[in-house]
Amino acid sequence: MHEMTLPYYTEDFLTEYLSVLNHLQDYNKVWTIFKCHKDLQHEEFLVEVAKAAYDLGEIETLRRLLKMMPSRIREGDTTLVELWYKDKADQLEITLEKAKKEFDAPNNIDFRML
After folding, report:
1. Residue 25 carries which DSSP code?
2. What global pTM score does this model have?
């Protein structure tokens, strides 16, 4: 039987935990956990951090995370592209709908099924 390493379980556990915290809108707790695990590069973990970063106004971190080149995000996942559009709308002080009509999301985070 192959033994799985603890870091694998830790990454997945933290990702699921952050997902629950985001669902409960406990963004400060998400941020606290992120600050304790800043070196963690697990993509799904970072997506959860990006959600909280937007809601906490941590725009610099959000924008840095939106520049990542994810390879494990599933086709059809719109989380990152939605955050990008929300940030773009906030930047330009326009509606989300207008941002979606006028701008194309970056290819590195656009996994929408069109």
Report:
1. T
2. 0.86
